[in-house]
Amino acid sequence: MSLADVKKPIKTLFPQHQLHQPGNQDKMSPEPRGFMEHYRAAGKLLDKVVLISGGDSGIGRAVAIGMAKEGADVAIIYLEEDNDAQITRQHIQAAGRKCLLLPGDISDQSFCEKAVKQTVAEFGDLNILVNNAAQQYPETDFEKLDFAQMERTFRNNIFPMFYLTQAALAHLKPGDSIINTASITAYQGAGELVDYASTKGAVVAFTRSLSAQLVKKKIRVNAVAPGPIWTPLIPSSFSAMEVMGFGKDVPMGRPGQPDEVAPCYIFLASDDASYMTGQTMHPNGGTIINS
User: Fold this and answer.
1) Main-chain phi, psi angles of 228, to 5 degrees
2) Which of 11, 44, 49, 115 could form a disulfide with 123 if both were Cys (CB 3.0 to 4.6 A apart)?
3) CA of 120: how far to CAs of 70, 98, 140, 171, in Å?
4) Who's near 98: CB < 8 A, 6+ residues apart?
5) What is the pLDDT of residues 88-142, one digit of tens each?
């Protein structure tokens, strides 16, 4: 199979829905591209240690495998999607690197602290933290927004970034990097995802503020704000019919693939981005963001 064949855009998203968040990648049709098969590595992260939340599938899987191909050992936090996590580990090991699986709930501060400790105990170091995991629960009527749901969204999407980052800072050194997953919704809003978009706006502010605090320590903090990307979060969030139209409203007219987003994270983690901190990259299919 040629690179052109692998990079062909999605033509059809079949009607599908999953009842459980954050969703299972092995149940999607078509399955997202996340194995970075034709990614050309250059040893940019040789012998670095990465901890990534939500690294079992979607964007997180592509980032984990891509960073492994660049020479990093990777610890993956995920909720309970064991099959997806095992598949990701197999691909990391196939790249010649080690992988540590860390199942658990990131809304629990003690688990986040334990995950960092286990990563350092396993690999002896920590250089790159990727705060990636998130959930979303659509609600088109704000008056019906359930406040228990709202609290759950914040506890999963923004609180863990504080928990994991605070625990990681005891180990990060000059030249190391923190990368947070924001979203195009932080800039455009999303009428059916008010609480989710609000957490993503918080991620942008968190990134900018933390970068200002850590710049003297020479630890860089940046973010990636993807547009519509075909990940398990989509069929586990929206109805089967809504999934069919997903991503068609961007200039490129299609959803993106995880392997089209992962290089942003790899760049920000590497020395190629040594003069970037407090910034956000926008792989979003051509939507212009002026903020």
Assistant:
1) -75, 110
2) 49
3) 20, 13, 43, 8
4) 73, 74, 92, 122, 123
5) 999 999 999 999 999 999 999 999 999 999 999 999 999 999 999 999 888 889 9
- For residues 273 and 42, give the distance between their C-alpha atoms in angstroms, rounded to a whole number: 15
Structure tokens at 219: 């630890």
Active site residue 187: no
What is the enclosing helix (H) or strand (E) of 280? Answer: strand 280-281
Distances (CA, A) of 112 to 118, 119, 156, 206: 10, 11, 12, 18
Burial of 237 (0-12, 13-18, 19+ CB in 10 A): buried
Residue of 124, 64, 100 lying closest to 266 (CA atoms): 64
* Rounded CA separation 209/211 (Å): 5
Q: What is the pTM of this model?
A: 0.92
Catalytic residue among 78, 163, 187, 196: 196
CA trace torsion 253, 257, 260, 265 (10° rounding): 130
Task: Report residue 156 as tokens.
Answer: 């999963």
Fold classification of 40-281 is Rossmann fold (3.40.50)
Closest CA to 36 of 277, 287, 265: 265
Q: Can you tell me which residue has the tokens 């139209």?
A: 245
Residue boundaries of the structural domains of the chain? 40-281
